[in-house]
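User: Sequence in, structure out. Go.
Assistant: Echoing your sequence, followed by the structure tokens.
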Amino acid sequence: MIKKVNMKRFIYFFVFFLLLTLGLFFIMNTLGSRTIQDSLINSSKNQLAYAESIMDGVISEASMYGIQYTADNDVRFYQSRKQDLSNYDGQMNKNEISERLSDQLFSSLAVESIGIYWKPDGTFIQTGHDSLAKLPFEQVTERGWQTYNNSLYYFSVYPYIHQPKNPANIQYIVGVKLKKEYLVSLLGKAVNGDSSNAFFLVNNNLVISGKPVDSRIVQKAKETITPDTQRILKFDYHTGEDDYYVLSKYIEPIDTYLVTYTRMSDFLNPLDRNQQVFVGSILVILIIGLIVILMFYRNFYRNVHLLGKKFYQVEQGNYSTRISENPVNEFFNLFKSFNHMVLKTQNLFASLKIETELRRDAEVKQLQAQINPHFLYNSLFFIMSMAKTSPEAVMQMSKHLAEYYRYLTKLDRHDATLASELQLADHFLSIMSLCKEIHYEINLPPELGEHRIMPLIIQPIVENAIQHGIEERQGAHRVSIELKALDDGALIIIADDGKGLAPEQIVLLAARVESESPPPGSRGIGLWNIHQRLKNAYGELSGLRFFTNDWGGLSVMAYIDFSLDEGGEHAITDCG
């Protein structure tokens, strides 16, 4: 006993030590990685925000230049004055405007050139000497930021306050071109050392960067980032070797994203080395743990597993299972108690099965005894009344009656099928049509005829339809029996054009047949018997259902499940 107690304490101590080590390792590694990542991300966000603020100033500066010269009086009246001036004075006026534009650029680091283009006569003034500088101005149709030949421009048009809807009405255009080199230098303020890179993504197409950019990250950025002007967005990108975090900020005026990405592995390598040390320690602990677990398995777990396996077999219904092992420890008494419990349970279920079968057999015989005599009495009285006046009718009725009861005498063989049950109903309806005006129709799909069914299910419902439906309504004379094939069974619908029932009466009838005890008196006992037999044989879904049909009479519906061979787990002995 002392050895067992010490072993148990050692197992507890080992589990506690292992969980504590794993917990500390996980916490330290997680906190270290998270701290470094948060620090890097916050630093990158601050740099990105700083670069964005500089870019906002550049955008404001370029926009201000465009607006300033659009509203400048010398520019506004240049065309009208040009007509009144000589060529020399006109050229001097143009030079004066060009010098003002050039002087403006001395104080700007971000603006490369400023140009003014008069659309009516194609006059163009610029600060630079690019012969193709006029081309982007000729394509301008509205005010705003545009890209041309991988460069950013801000264009302002006159009239300024009420911009012309028709581009042909634009008098002149002022364009401000940003320095691409300045934009590239600005990206340097957004990166976080050599492990980071940055680029501008303009119009979701143009990429501006001072260093080579990973095309996979550019494509991922195009698919991921959204134009959020309020926040700096972040997403992670993983390759086969490296992990990156990507930050982006949308600059709405120029429809541009400022994107930075940083390789995390450069910063997490020290943690990886620590992780390798911890992994080595954990491997040693695991080896020790395997030895302890093996000892534990041999002395305890194997017996517990065996007991669980035997309990599962009992749960699956195998009450003959026993435990034959006889360990020399506390499991001996436990196994002995298990075998005794299973033996008692097996005897109990055997007794209960016999009792259940006897009860069901007696119950079904009682139900059929209530159904069989009623039709015979009515038929014999009819034969007596017709014997003198219509011998032919007596012969026909006697033939159908003989066939009817010959079928009943064969029920002990359990060979009832849908076809034979409908033939029994046909005999019954033939007899009824001889003594009163009854028109009936029986529809049986050929594929359903040979399916087995509990006997005396359909005929009592037909008899109930005539007695309590047709006979209680003047002029009623129609009965219909229709079978419909379903996936796993058949639907039986018996309808008449008799008296029918009001909705509240149908609810009351459904509640009456659902009752565990038969209704008082004789009315409704037949339907109650059939409903109880169906539920007993085919389950809860197979009971009777009632509804009003198109004739105004009552329809009775029952479902037969063919997947249950004569009731399957609900099967009973049906001896008539």
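User: And one key feature?
Assistant: Residues 2-70 form the longest helix (69 residues).
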